[in-house]
Design a protein that fits this description.
Length: 107
Amino acid sequence: MELHTINPEPNKIGRPNKCDTDLLYDTPLYKVLVAKLPTEFLKGGRIDTLALCKGTGNARFTVYRWFKEQRLSPKAAKSLRGLSDATKEPEKKGALTKDDLIPFLDI
């Protein structure tokens, strides 16, 4: 008779994460975007990366790279400002400015 032991951690299937996502939430760029992006791009107090991808026209990998590297291309900064300018929320309309994004520009 063979006894089976219970593994305290479930087996993880698939490729492991390359980055701890908790670290992404504490970055300055992430905090600026959470504070200034329209609520349609937030879910549960965090950035909805899928909605942000669709809004900016970038791949999800690209959005996560912004947070990990803390850098934006001029095109990315312009698309993020466009999301802020196009919102119908009066308190968030134009909230994300050039001055907010200048520290993160990869020039």
